[in-house]
Specification:
Blueprint: H1 10-23, E1 37-40, E2 57-60, H2 80-84
Antiparallel strand pairs: 1-2
């Protein structure tokens, strides 16, 4: 089975590099620095025909670059992109107090 154009090839690598230039390396899911993967805002499994576009991706922690701050229930570093999967983007809870 051929690899998706969204995960390989020069256009993807170019768009990924542009995405990191535009948005930096802060994970769009947890907000911590050190993200090393491109998370597609509309998951590829939902729309495989979407164009390879740096504006449709955001930095996220993943298997190759787990979060250095967040940990899972078992104490391992969090992989935000894999935990999100193909679900909608999480809505951050913003309150006036730290609970």
């Amino acid at each position: 089975m051929p690899r998706s154009r969204h995960r390989a090839g020069r256009p993807y690598r170019r768009a990924r590099a542009q995405m990191f230039q535009m948005f930096g390396d802060a994970c769009h899911i947890c907000g911590h620095a050190g993200a090393g993967e491109a998370d597609h805002l509309t998951p590829i499994s939902i729309d495989s025909d979407q164009p390879v576009d740096p504006y449709a991706m955001r930095p996220a922690h993943g298997a190759n670059a787990p979060c250095p701050v967040c940990t899972g229930a078992d104490g391992t570093p969090r992989k935000c992109n894999q935990e999100r999967g193909n679900r909608p983007l999480p809505v951050p809870l913003r309150t006036s107090q730290i609970w």
